[in-house]
């Protein structure tokens, strides 16, 4: 629960983008510019028509609500329960995986509007509206307790870009490809991640959640549980030749449960377009990537 806490100067950290409001304000300055990462992936709970919520630092303050963890990711952490099947957006996951309770905002929010008759009461999942911007499974990793005010998207929190858990997972992947799913070193590395996830203790000796073998799917699922929204999934899937397949299987968009739609990815999109300015500078000698 300290990995993405207020202080990122700890033993998990390998590479951090630092920001500092006092010396910042522009990319040309030492402190850089503020980030909106703490607003991208969390819902606007304060827009609920019930009036039970107001903007607060505790719930992420002002939110853009542009993107959110999908059902595929949420269900990787445990068993899905629907308290009211007629309200499929009201989801509950039964899990012992501590990443679910530390890397994401709670399923159930406590009313924080002093003018609401429900002030101080937990609002059940079945009482939220079917509007993904107003209520959705939301990411907490970039939450900012210290520098982001309730009424702004600007955050000066440092951004943890590369951390020790990713090294363990990359090590597990390498040994898996070299020696197969029962490779002892691959299992040691991936189970180190799992033991911390279920006990909260680094270097735990609790084996109750260990994998005894690894498949490509189980590796990708564990990587998603641990590293989701940290900026590496695209590169992992592209490296393994699975980007188009997995995008088609799992990516969805929509504003509520009644209009969710897939967004298939064309194969040529595994490469980005070459900027036209670069092509022009080359005198046309450098071609555009196929499909653009």
Which SSEs are present, and which pair or pack?
Elements: E1 13-17, H1 37-40, H2 71-76, E2 79-81, E3 92-94, H3 98-102, E4 109-110, E5 122-123, E6 159-163, H4 164-179, H5 184-199, H6 216-227, H7 233-239, H8 243-250, E7 252-253, E8 261-262, H9 276-281
Antiparallel strand pairs: 1-6, 2-3, 4-5, 7-8
Description of the structure:
It is a single chain. The strands form 4 sheets. Strands 1-6 form a two-stranded antiparallel ribbon. Strands 2-3 form a two-stranded antiparallel sheet. The radius of gyration is 21 Å and the shape is globular. With 292 residues, it is an alpha+beta fold. The mean pLDDT is 95. Strand 7 and strand 8 (261-262) form a beta hairpin. 27% of the residues lie in helices and 8% in strands.
Question: Would you kindly provide a brief summary of this structure?
Answer:
The protein contains 9 helices and 8 strands. With 292 residues, it is α+β, with helices and mostly antiparallel strands.
Features:
single chain; 292 residues; alpha+beta; two-stranded antiparallel sheet; 9 helices; 8 strands; globular
The N- to C-terminal Cα distance equals 43 Å
β-strand amount: 5-15%
Extended strand count: 8
User: Taking strands numbered 1, 2, ... along the chain, how are they ordered across the largest sheet?
Assistant: 1-6
Order of helices and strands: EHHEEHEEEHHHHHEEH
Q: Which range best describes the helical content: under 10%, 10-25%, 25-40%, 40-55%, 55-70% or over 70%?
A: 25-40%
Mean pLDDT: 95
Give the structural class: alpha+beta
Give the overall shape: globular
Provide the gyration radius in Å: 21 Å
Biggest pleated sheet: 2 strands, antiparallel
Provide a count of the helices.
9
> Low-confidence parts, pLDDT < 50 over ≥5 residues?
none
